[in-house]
Amino acid sequence: MHIISDEKLAKIMEDLDKIRQKSTNSSGTSSSKDTDYEVGDAYSAKDAIRPLVVTNCSEYVVAHARNELRPARQFAEVSMLPHILDTMRKLGLNRLLRLQSYTWPHLAGGAGHGAMIVGAPGSGRTFSYVPSVCHAVCKAIRESRSRPKDLEPGSWQQEQYGAKALILVPDLRRVRQVSALCHALLRKTYNEEWFTLTLNVPSTKSSEFFLRLLNGVGCLVATPAQLVWFWQEAPGLMRFPCLQFLVYDDVDLMSKEQLMNAQQVLQEILPITHSPQVVMVSQTYSPELMAKLSAVNHQPALVFGDIMEAALYGGTRIRISLVPSSAKVNAVIQMLQQRPPNDYRTVIYCVDDRDMQRLVVALKDQRYNCLPYYQNSDMEVREQVHSWQANSRGVILLCTDNCPELIIRDAHTLIHHGMSISWSKFKMRHLMLSGNLSNSLAAEVGPVKVSLHSLVLMDDSNHRELPRLVDFLQLHQEVDPGVVALAKRIRQEMDKARSEQKTLCSQILVLGKCYDSVCENRHHVTHSDRRPDYIPASGDVKVKLVQVYSPTHFCVRLLEHMPPQGTWKTLPYPAVQEMRMQLMLNNESPRYWPPVVGVICLYNTTFTKERVRVLKVAPIQNVNIVQSNLSVEVQALDADTRIFVTDCGRLFECPEAMQREPPMACDLRLLGLVPYSGERSWTEEDCRNVKGMLTQLPKDHFLQAKIQFATAGTLFVRNLVAIVYAGQFKVHLRHLNLAQKLIKSTLAKRCEEATNMILDFFEEVLIQEKEVEEEKEVQESKENAERETQEVVKNELEKNKGTILSGRCLRLAQVALEVGRDNQLQPKLQETRSTIRDASSNQVENYSGKTEEDAKPHSNEDQVSQLYECLMNCARLQLEDKKEPVKESGQVHSDPTEVLNQVVIPIQLPDNVVRPSVTYYQTTSTLELHVCLLEDDYEYQTMLLGSQLFFRATSKSSELIQQFILTLRFPIDKLRHHIRGRTVYISITKSLAYIVPLEFGEYSFLKPNHDGFGKMYDSRKSALKQLVRDLRDFGYSKPEAELQNKSDESEDEDRNLDGIERVDYNEIFD
């Protein structure tokens, strides 16, 4: 223990007199000022928590202690000071909540009566201890008012300094809430000038704070980091001899490091003569924390406002089973076989009475005795339920959530055949197990109780509840990885379907993890977080500062970019971009209705217009009724990146050209820098200091940063440097290194753990981006290889003379070479992706539903070799047909395709390769080919590759191969084909329905089907004649010559084609 010297104490008292004198002089001018709340953040009445503005209040509580706890039934049974009860009523606490009815009487027992309160946020946890703490503080103040008579007025009283109650909370926001609530309950307490009712820790060193501690404090509200800070500032000054309450509020949100550091300080400041009452408030139960509480309080209590938490504490095992709807009955029967109803009292929950009836029939078929409790059950069924509670005799009770009159607390097995309509109702189901929960605090060890089990059956109808259930169970037990992966996918699908586009949690972007249990922001990545093309992925950037949001978060505009191992490139100048945008905004735009999430629109104020993106839209009752006061959450894109809420009446449609323009503003964050104090958020004073640093830079400066990685609209950088140009020396100098400045001024510190967690959080997005970059590299390598091939061709032209293929044959050969090159590059790309997919392949395998055939690897080696062989053989066949003369090699061609036409390929045509006989004709919508094969035993293959048709047929009885390649010069939609006898019918559907000129003169094996063409022309001619007759009937007539000129404009020539052999579409296969 540190000892305060007389000189130091005298100096403290001298400073105290000065402060008291200042406060006395200022009391006459500002009598309304709260002198009890001067240190720390300013008091705001709106920070006081309204007790009944809650969402998770429960009418049922599970309370365990060494002895039986007796709850208070009404306010008259609560022993508290009148002004505290009156203030609570004014704040809205007009009825006694179940959670408070247990904690208030227990904490009123005095020293040794500690408690752990476990409940969901918004369940009244804070008001379960604050009134009791304030009541004890008021009593202590009254006792300390009877000071010794010989003590001079205004003098310091020994053994009365320090706080009466110390409340530790996880973050600064919680500090403001709890402090405001304590101040509201204590402000009517009779108080001396020298005593401070509620005190916070200032963000900077202040002697006034320590002097107030010496004079005495009612409630000191601080974070663990603040507690460590002021102990380090005055280590020998901080013994609290009168401490009566030590409260850990939201202890589960405090990190292990924070708790360990706070515990070291508490060992120094806690009183030596007695142990204070310890209260822990948590969302989840922790046996380690409960053991520490029991070590210092001989009468601990454990009060659960969350029934599901109580079930897990009492030894219940909760298991999730993913089964189809048709297999749920089998899963129930399997569970009953494992836990027979004769040994375990069993309750099955169903969705409704109809679901219950079907399950009862299925169970009775398996010879199980059932007791269904329907909505219309009478007193006779109620009597059967009472008898079942006394002795179940192997009977299974079935019910729904709409049976509050069933008071059952001694069940052993819960089977959730159907899920509840709400999360709170699902948790309340486990109240049926509460009578069998093990009490770890009981003075006498009872008999060993029967194991408890809760089985949750999930199917397609209730899978939306899976993500929340998985999140809850992961806090207490191991969950199957496959179930976790499925819950993640379901959450992503649900987010896409919602009418909101939530922003990422700010704590994740700074610390890599969110510690706020009621945070409404997004805590997972989506496809919208992928980096767009206009955001640089790496290298250095020069930026213009627009706004300072925090010491590590800024809004900037990009000026220049230098890629790795590159040079500076100027980006679109913001001023020019803004001028162009304003010119496009001159025209009036219509109102934007209805608002759609993700759409870019215009936000109009009195003087300006700016682009915004819609993030969240309030529910719309009728889209046909245009509203002006509908609440819409939007994010600015150009002026800055702020997020705000506005009315839809201020939103107007944005032209498509403006929507395609990239945003002018983006976010910039310093990666790995966290608050030095250990807090999870920055104070307003920290933001003001950093803003002053960046706004007071020299006039001719620029800001430069090195990119670590980038996401959608956000650059994560290692540092931000301000550089100025020294004209006298003609060099650039670093004027400010922001990261180094923050670390030296103890505003921030490097945290590698936060850096790694942020990188892990964005791992999926970064991997996807890497895959896209690798595909681009493969495409670039292909283009480079093509250029190299062209160079080789040119060189060969100069060296060799001989038999030359035509340009079309060469292009076919080149297609084969490209396919072969793709086949070589594909293993490399698959190898880079294999490491990514290996981790999740085992999890996805159980739920993907793929067949064994789909899982087999596909090899393209045989297909590629056959394609290449077909290409080369067809090229040789064409050369034999045309016998083209060799052009002079000295001739210069400007067209690259003419150069490619002169490739020297030796003709070595195999003897077993021939062309089949092919006839063709066309209609408006199709091109019909009839391929006549030599024998009936041929097997054929045909495919479309770009604009080229490949055909290959092989015989089973001989080695003869029939094949050809046909180049089509019109857009193609799809290919259909089938074989009948020795004829293969091929139908090629055109993308555009019109008659195209067929240039098949160079294909000697192709013969026109004159019957088909004749029938087509006859049908068109008859259609035209019918049109002329119709026009004459209407009194319209044109010269005969004009009609003949327009005779080819028939709309439908597919009629009256009887007798033409066409494709049988009933037997077509792809």
Residue-averaged pLDDT, rounded?
78
Strand content: 15-25%
- Count every helix, treating DSSP H or I runs of 4 or more residues as helices: 29
Query: Which strands sit side by side, in order, in the main sheet?
Result: 1-8-2-7-6-3-5-4
| CATH topology-level name of the domain at 61-144 and 159-305 | Rossmann fold
| Unreliable stretches | 1-10, 19-46, 49-55, 801-805, 839-861, 883-907, 1039-1070
CATH class category name of the domain at 61-144 and 159-305: Alpha Beta
Principal-axis shape equals globular
Rounded Rg? 41 Å
Kindly report the name of the CATH homologous superfamily of the domain at 61-144 and 159-305.
P-loop containing nucleotide triphosphate hydrolases
Instruction: Report how far apart the termini are.
Output: 88 Å
Helix share, percent: 25-40%
How would a textbook summarize the main sheet? 8 strands, mixed
Q: Which secondary-structure class do the elements indicate? A: alpha/beta
CATH architecture title of the domain at 61-144 and 159-305:
3-Layer(aba) Sandwich
